[in-house]
Design goal:
Order of helices and strands: HHEHEHEEEHEHEEHEHEHHHHEHEEH
CATH topology: Amidase signature (AS) enzymes
Distance between the termini: 15 Å
CATH superfamily: Amidase signature (AS) domain
Mean pLDDT: 97
Largest sheet: 11 strands, mixed
Strand order of the largest sheet: 1-3-2-6-8-7-12-13-11-9-10
CATH class: Alpha Beta
Low-confidence stretches: none
Length: 448
């Protein structure tokens, strides 16, 4: 199992290793075969300078490797958003706010990670630059044929799972942090969207986009969140038994494959033995989302608004699977969009009322393990399978984005099993409760 940032930082502070030594380990991992198609461009020399800077060991990130999704501006680098359409754009004149905060905290930025074109898929496939293969942070390479890494933060998830980065900055609009976390056996925390600025990032949905990170542990997730959100997480000494937890039956448990069902039920049993109070609730409101988003949802409308001029000039250069979903936004009228805003506001109120009295809800992050890359690779005959898989991967996670909520995915599988994620989640600004509960859950699962 990979050492996390908090432990490695303590080793650096104690003089047992140095930031430059640890950075070289990360660079070696990034250049290894497990990281094929993970990085679009690297900045290793700049990272080496950051790791060797005076006093860096005293900073929260201690000169350790951090990767950045190819959606966020890094000064001097082109932000291409996983597309050839923006490949000739000028280099970013400055870091976006999220990257700037990571640098000030002592990050050694190692490069831009590959992603789904314009962040529009939960699968992780990119026909332009290749698709990285999922990797298990706990147990290494997955057996058998290469499997999808999850998207849209595909390279981000694999960069953490392989040891190429301690933290991966990414985005989450419908699950793009938590899906790669689940499929690569790492931790992904989607904070309440308003807590971290998204300036300097190519948007998918300005309503739903969230800047957040993948990490190797929940305590690392807290470190990353405190830096990105420029706030302190309130820690709680309360034991697991003091928190009220619920498992929603509607939608979230539908269509689970055998591996996910086994890991999820085993996890609930472990937590109950540790004293957790876990109720089952119906939460029928989640079944209303399909109708609410029937006209295409925020991602279609808002991405089309951003892309429509580019599409007029470069439509043929887009991944057809991405272009078709962006173009769906052209059919939405202003009245449709306003209706969607009102429907979301009312739905959030109903959901928050139904969840009152609970500190977090628990569900599988995604209901299936990672399918093979070949099964969803570009090709007309595989489009139906791609969209089926994409819908399943996004189904559970996207509920939280529509809720304007927060969610943590952490691994709950055993050795010899494909990675499976457990998601703890709640409504907006319950971030600290979700993180505190996540720490307790992680501790119980590690002691199995």
């Amino acid at each position: 199992m990979l050492a996390d940032l908090v432990f490695t930082r303590s080793q650096v502070a104690a003089g047992h290793c140095s930031a430059p030594q640890e950075l070289e380990r990360s660079i070696a991992a990034a250049q290894g075969p497990a990281c094929a198609h993970v990085f679009r461009q690297t900045c290793h020399e700049e990272a080496r300078a950051a790791a060797a800077a005076p006093g860096v060991a005293r900073l929260p990130l201690a000169g350790l490797a951090v990767s950045v999704k190819d959606l966020f501006d890094i000064r001097g680098m082109v932000t291409a958003a996983g597309s050839t359409v923006l490949a000739d754009a000028p280099p970013a004149p400055a870091d976006c706010t999220a990257v700037a905060r990571l640098r000030r905290a002592g990050a050694a930025i190692v490069g831009h990670t590959h992603m789904v074109e314009f962040a529009f898929s939960g699968v992780g496939v990119n026909p332009h630059f290749g698709t990285p293969a999922a990797h298990d942070a706990r147990h290494g390479a997955l057996p058998g044929p290469a499997r999808v890494p999850g998207g849209s933060s595909s390279g981000a998830g694999v960069s953490v799972a392989t040891g190429a980065a301690f933290i991966a900055l990414g985005s989450d609009t419908g699950g793009s942090i938590r899906i790669p976390a689940a499929l690569n056996g790492v931790v992904g925390f989607k904070n309440t969207a308003r807590l971290v600025p998204t300036d300097g990032a190519v948007p998918l949905s300005t309503t739903l986009d969230t800047a957040c990170a993948l990490t190797r542990s929940v305590r690392d997730a807290i470190v990353a969140h405190e830096i990105l959100a420029a706030r302190r997480v309130t820690r709680s000494p309360a034991p697991l038994a003091a928190w009220r937890l619920a498992v929603p039956r509607t939608l979230f448990l539908d269509g689970m494959d055998g591996a996910v069902a086994t890991a999820f039920e085993r996890t609930l049993a472990t937590l109950r033995r540790a004293g957790a109070r876990i109720d089952e609730i119906a939460l029928p409101e989640t079944a209303e989302l399909a109708q609410i988003n029937a006209t295409g949802g925020f991602s279609a409308a808002e991405s089309h608004a951003w892309h429509r001029a580019l599409l007029q000039r470069h439509a043929g250069a887009y991944d057809p699977r991405v272009r078709s979903r962006i173009e769906r936004g052209a059919a939405m009228s202003a009245a449709d969009y306003i209706d969607l805003l009102h429907a979301r506001r009312a739905w959030i109120a109903h959901m928050e009322a139904a969840m009152a009295g609970y500190d977090a809800l628990l569900s599988p992050t995604v209901p299936i393990v990672a399918p093979t890359i070949e099964s969803v690779a570009p090709g007309g005959e595989r489009d139906a399978e791609f969209f089926r898989v994409n819908g399943l991967l996004l189904r559970n996670t996207s509920v939280v984005n529509m809720l304007d909520g927060c969610a943590l995915s952490l691994p709950c599988h055993h050795a010899g099993e494909l990675p499976v994620g457990l998601m703890a989640w709640h409504a907006a600004l319950h971030d600290d409760a979700v993180l505190n509960i996540g720490l307790l859950i992680e501790r119980e699962l590690q002691e199995q």
